[in-house]
Amino acid sequence: MSERRPLRVIQWATGSVGQISIRHMVENPAFEVVGCFVTSAEKDGCDIGELAGVDPVGVLATCDAEAVLALDADCVNYAPLYVDIDEITRILRSGKNLVTPSGFTYPAALDDKVRERLEAACQEGGVSLFGTGIHPGFAGDLLPLTFARLASRIDELVVQEVGDFRNHPSAAMMFDGLGFGRDPDDLRANPPRMFDTMGRTFKESIHLLAAGLGIDVEDYDFVWDSAVARRDVTVRAGSIAKGGVAGMRLEWRVWNGGRPVLIFRSFWRMDDETDPDWGYEDCKYALYFTGLPSFRVNYEPTDPGPNGDIGYWGRIWTALSAVNAIPTVVDAPAGIRTHLDLPVAQPPHLHRKSPGSRP
């Protein structure tokens, strides 16, 4: 990629993914972080470097959305735990491109009114919206679309994810959002809040994959089950008593010809010992192609992560899938953009002298 001026970016939210994004953009000369929006009064006025666990950089976080949107910026990296359509359209109308690891990978699968609002905001601001991440956003859409070039026929495609969450830092996401630690019967009767968010994001991703492969979606469904802890478990975000939910198996499925042909299967766990034991594999992500030929693709981290937190790399992947696409999105025509119409992203300055800090 030819040299260009640093792209001016606003970081929107500083949870675990937002902090990783800040560290990357501060270190990478392709970016200049010019502002940061937070919702916590404790973070208001703090230097974003300190919030991200690095040296101060001279940019202060603020709870004042109007002040942030008044800044001159090329793009907003939007990474809250829960998205707000009104907030997103407001950002787009302000004339700032938006990338996010929180869905919107294929808004054509959403309600027409939502999609139309997003597209109208893009056109009004003259900017683009792009959703990505690790899954959804890469493992279940861009990666299988790439490997599908090797196939003559696809009868079934399974995208499998194994997530180890015992070292995840966010109690808000793990316990309040996903419902780990709850009674399984209560969880079944009252599904957790994050299931609504995941229902939207995974539906988009699997419909993008279907569109990219030319598969008619005759039906689509979501099924899930939970596993309980066989012992009391202490994890980074809190504690789970014996008998509380410590594992989940989730499947999002596209049907064609009376059977599922595209399947997103996720195993999420807080401990190695759960009931039932679904026989988790070690590999983080795997693609299973059944057809001509049948083959498997898998990838996983090769490092245990800081303090043994293997899930940290998943958060790295989630954050950087969005941030590294910013130059491509800024250059794209105005409108909703997806993997089906964007060129292959060319991440800038990934090979550079390391300052010896965390990635």
Summarize the topology.
Layout: E1 7-12, H1 16-27, E2 31-37, H2 48-51, H3 65-69, E3 75-78, H4 85-93, E4 97-100, H5 112-125, E5 128-131, H6 142-147, E6 153-164, H7 171-177, H8 184-189, H9 194-213, E7 219-229, E8 233-235, E9 238-240, E10 245-256, E11 259-269, E12 274-275, E13 285-292, E14 295-299, H10 311-323, H11 326-331, E15 335-337
Parallel strand pairs: 1-2, 1-3, 3-4, 4-5, 5-15, 6-11
Antiparallel strand pairs: 6-13, 7-10, 7-12, 8-9, 10-11, 13-14
Low-confidence stretches: none
Indicate the structural class: alpha/beta
> Quick check: average pLDDT?
94
* End-to-end C-alpha gap: 22 Å
Q: Enumerate how many helices there are, as a single number.
A: 11
Query: For the largest beta sheet, what order do the strands appear in spatially?
Result: 12-7-10-11-6-13-14
Say how many strands there are: 15
Order of helices and strands: EHEHHEHEHEHEHHHEEEEEEEEHHE
User: Fraction of residues in helices?
Assistant: 25-40%
Radius of gyration: 20 Å
Largest sheet entry: 7 strands, mixed
Q: Strand percentage, roughly? A: 25-35%
Number of domains: 2
Sum up the overall morphology in one term: globular
InterPro entries: DAP_DH_C, NAD(P)-bd_dom_sf
Protein name: 2,4-diaminopentanoate dehydrogenase C-terminal domain-containing protein
Domain 2,4-diaminopentanoate dehydrogenase C-terminal: 141-346
Pfam family, one: DAP_DH_C
